[in-house]
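Posting this for the archive.
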Amino acid sequence: MKYLDEFRDGELARRLAREIQQTATRRWAIMEVCGGQTHSIVRNGLDQLLEDAVEMIHGPGCPVCVTPLELIDKALAIASQPGVIFCSFGDMLRVPGSTKDLFRIKAEGGDVRVVYSPLDALQIARQNPDRQVVFFGIGFETTAPANAMAVHQAKLQQVSNFSMLVSHVLVPPAIEAIMNSPSCRVQAFLAAGHVCSVMGYWQYYPLVERYRVPIVITGFEPLDLLEGIRRTVQLLEAGTPQVENAYERAVSFEGNQAAQKLLSEVFEVEDRNWRGIGEIPRSGWKLRDAYRDFDAEHRFSVSDIRTQESSFCRSGEVLQGNLKPNECAGFGHECTPRHPLGATMVSTEGACAAYYNYGRFVAVDSIR
């Protein structure tokens, strides 16, 4: 526990918090992009600790949450087909589609399996040459290299019964979309350290120059986040928009260049629909034509599936930082982790799940 405890030191956390409060001459609005950061902030009470100096706005950094409804329905359609083994990380199984989820497909007899890596799914394909094996490849830049490697290996080893349903989204275009929104209140960003460990942080400089907002790369432990917020507040107070790396133990300027090379070989950039937000230009990846045979949408002809989002669930506003989860009328009533209306309540990184699971924002009479 040594290397966790040193980033959870209570006395050092209080000192950092005091410095942030003493530095801030006004209340600044800072968005953490990553859902993992959101959960750490809420679980450890950092937002309450700093509420006089900083408003933490929870961004669209949960890959499960922003996976569009129509792609969930495509996954359900594929998983329902006979002869298919549908593989996914566990957090996707409870994400609601239009009428059901992957757990329901499994209960109805579909072969839906939880795996811990796309390479596990590739191994299942090798072991079952008479079955079609599909992996649900979602995530930001963090999980993309492993998914790219699985497809690359499938082609190299001629595993023709393996394919991937791809839903990869990219952080910089999301930041740009948030800043272009007329309702944007964000004055600075905490960037996700695990994304930057892959991609580096060179791509944030044009955003800082264009929108004049500080971006500080940070990690996920309480002291990581407090140090990131401290640096961000200093930049805001000085009126100095720039990029800073507060996660040097894991992130370099250029990132993992071998991973970037593989990503460039397997994927190409496309416009991507984000659940609750809409289409963001050049914000996602799809398989290149050279890997089209491993594209599950193409293989199973589900590209024409279209859906309509729920008008009652306000997760889109939560994902854009325009609404706190407990401000939604359904929160804690019609929408709970046991009976979620939207992906922000399902996912272990969703802002609504964080608010509910850590209890501070749920009235006793709202828990049913």
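Residues 363-368 have pLDDT under 50 and may be disordered. The radius of gyration is 21 Å.
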